[in-house]
Amino acid sequence: MIEVEVHQQLRAFLREQGEPYWPHHLTMARLVARALRLGRSALIQAGAPSGYHGRYRLSYLMPLLLWHEPAILVASEAVQQRLLMVEIPRLRQWIVAKKSIQTGDCWPDPEFQGLLLTTPQAWLSDRLYQEGRFPVGILTVIDGVDDLEDWTRSLLTTRLGSQDWNDLMQCYPDQADEIRDARVQLTCSIFQHPVNPYDRYLLEMPEQAVLEDLYQTLLEDRATESGQQDANRQAENREVDTLPHNWQALQEQLASRDQLLWTEVARPQGQFSLHSAPAEVASVLEPVWAQQPVVLIGGALDLETDAPTFRQRLGLGDLTCVKFSPDRQHELIQLYLPDGLPMPNTPQFQPILMQEVRALLNATNTAKQGLTVLLVGDMPLKAQVGSMLAAEFGSRVQVEKTCLDENGILISGWEFWRQHQAVLPAPHLLVITTLPLPSLEDPLVAGRVAHYKRARQDWFRLYLLPEALTELQRAIAPVRESQGVVALLDNRVNHRTYGQQVLTAMSPLARINYVDASLFTQFEGLGARD
Predict the structure, then answer these.
(1) Three-class SS of 286-329
(2) What domain of life does the native source organism fall in (predicted)?
(3) Strands (E), 194-284
(4) Which residues of 348-377 are buried (b: 16+ CB within 10 A; e: fewer)?
(5) Could you give the C-alpha distances from 164 to 168, 191, 244, 341, 421, in angstroms and in order?
(6) CA gap 32, 204 in Å, rounded
(7) How far apart are CA 296 and CA 54, in angstroms?
(8) Which residue in 294, 374, 398, 520 has the most C-beta neighbors within 10 A?
């Protein structure tokens, strides 16, 4: 069987090459091989970061290269480059059979029996819009499904900017005045919204009414010109044929309660853009999974092995679910979680936070070892922390920069750290000021929460908390690899019912009640990761 061959080949390869330690290589390789043989879908939580350096990738590459039938591997362009330049050449030197490997955004030809590497955007676009570029029924491995929901929502997002207004006036030159008036009304209304850190706002009912009136005007005028006032159905069909694509998509989405409608503004330029995206993607993804067997691989997707929350949000039915846990001996972190700090939403939080941060930095100063990272999700607080620390520690402090001193202090938001942690040195100390719970001040977060409320669902347990736990596990992954120190300064972990879930997500860990220079001596000689 393919499982036996994969096990033997991978075990011999790992022994010969002296691969970095990961205890689940052989188990995961057999699971993927079994999925190939049976054509049965599976969801694998690797328990390791799914970024550029994902250590588990040898575990699915070996069965894919040994399998005698065609397969598709969906991965980001950065991961594809890593596979093509590093992992695949080494495996192909070891494996006798030479399977054809190609990259592209469509299936090469009907006779192709090799492995095709493609991007999530290309594969999802084909499946969601039925473009016919990839055949059905071919087993597909999707790497990095931590981001699958975001990939899907991004593809389904309609965006209208300045050029779209010009295109609309070209299609309806006789209604140019009405189109300009609608644009002016929207501009005046949108720019009256109070400034927020995100520069975006949900479209309110009066603003949606402006768009609906504009569509109605264009529809009626087109019907008059065509002499079809007596046939509303014909007028609607005519309108669909003449509206530019983005405007047609927005019209279809405008009346749906399952859509998020928002605007993003560029205040210095006095411009805005309109956006529409589905509040949930499960309903559109559910038919996709029936078209072929899939092996979905991510880092940490859900606290439960059968991933009920993740599967619900992605429209996944019954499938084999496996969850690998980090190894306690090699991936344990030291967690400093002080009690008695003010809650993050109180005025007392910032000054006490700065006291704790200064004490932690003084401990690392004594050790003089490696990078320190402070994760600050609140945008105004991030700027304030950066300014105060720069005044004390000088050029060592950088706010969201990748050019850092050997003993630098990086002040970062969650998104920046997620995007750049693979190319930065593993921090000897990671300070988390607050849990990465999505902020209800973000209009898009508020819109999705409103969707859960309308459906009478638990928006905190199904949306905010899973998002925070996933972000948290991805953020601490580099520290886990070096068994460093994480300082979590959010006292809600000690006093909220979900605190135990946070600790479970961060496990394995060892609680410590103080931080001093002795904790960092183990980092001596550590440099940037390969």
Answers:
(1) HHHHCCCCEEEEECCCCCCCCCHHHHHHHCCCCCEEEECCCCCC
(2) Bacteria
(3) 200-202, 259-266, 271-278
(4) ebbebbeebbeebbebbeebebbbbbbbbb
(5) 6, 19, 8, 51, 37
(6) 48
(7) 14
(8) 374
Span 60-103, pLDDT tens digits: 999 999 999 999 999 999 999 999 999 999 998 888 878 899 99
What domains can you pick out in the chain, each with its CATH number?
2-155+281-323 (3.40.50.300), 158-278 (no CATH), 333-523 (3.40.50.300)
Summary count for the chain: helices (H), strands (E):
22, 18
Residue among 327, 323, 515, 305 at smallest CA distance from 430 = 515
CB 502 within 8 A of CB 469: yes
Amino acid at 324: F
pLDDT digits (tens, 9 = 90+) for 207-258: 999 999 999 998 876 666 555 445 454 444 444 447 899 999 999 888 787 8
386: CB partners within 8 A, 6+ apart: 397, 399, 411
Query: Contact, 201 vs 443, CB < 8 A?
Result: yes
Residue 266, beta-bridge partner list: 271
Enter the pTM of the model: 0.89
